[in-house]
Design brief:
The protein is of the alpha+beta class. About 30% of the residues lie in helices and about 35% in strands. The protein has five helices and ten strands, in the order αααβαββββββββαβ. The strands form two sheets. The protein has a seven-stranded antiparallel β-sheet with strand order 3-2-9-8-7-1-10. A three-stranded antiparallel β-sheet has the order 4-5-6, covered by helices on one side.
Length: about 180
């Protein structure tokens, strides 16, 4: 009986995401009492691909060559956004260290990454594409959004890099 209840809840979440794929993932997760990864997995077919967490370093160093992107950290208390180039990094002392003295810098717990999601979906009336780094509990560590051009459209060069990275990391389609 319990398994059918879980399947029913998953089907209900899939139905909600089919109806509103632009919903804020973290908000939906909170409303449903599930991890954000489950919300990403409930997106309609073709909107999300999921690769292994072991791809963290390769993904971050590839993103470092994309140019201006927007990195977002969304917590219960704040949404931090950084628009600019993500610096390359390297592993040292148990962290993936972003190596630049100003702008975006810091130390990321790369071993906490349990998956790398590649999401393409509508958001606020426009196409959007982002890489979500997921922790082992299914939470979102942070997201990196493909940049926009002067017409507010996704940058074609970055979108191509985004899709190539999903292919490289073996991202499997979910949904």
């Amino acid at each position: 009986m319990a398994i059918s209840v879980v399947k029913s809840a998953a089907a209900d979440l899939k139905a909600q995401m089919a109806e509103n794929p632009a919903a804020v993932i973290e908000d939906v997760a909170r409303q449903w009492g599930v991890a954000p990864r489950e919300v990403i997995e409930a997106l309609p077919a073709g909107m999300a691909r999921l690769g292994p967490g072991a791809g963290f370093v390769a993904a971050m160093n590839d993103i470092a060559s994309w140019g201006e992107v927007t990195l977002i950290v969304h917590s219960d208390d704040a949404i931090f956004e950084f628009t600019g180039a993500v610096p390359p990094g390297e592993i040292g002392r148990g962290y993936f260290n972003l190596s630049q003295p100003k702008g975006l810098h810091g130390h990321l717990r790369h071993d906490n990454c349990g998956g790398v999601a590649f999401v393409e979906r509508p958001f606020m009336g426009k196409a959007s594409a982002f890489v979500a780094f997921l922790n082992h509990s299914g939470g979102i560590m942070f997201k990196v959004f493909v940049g926009r051009d002067e017409h507010r459209e996704l940058r074609a060069d970055q979108l191509a890099r985004f899709r190539a990275l999903a292919d490289q990391l073996g991202g499997e389609s979910v949904g």
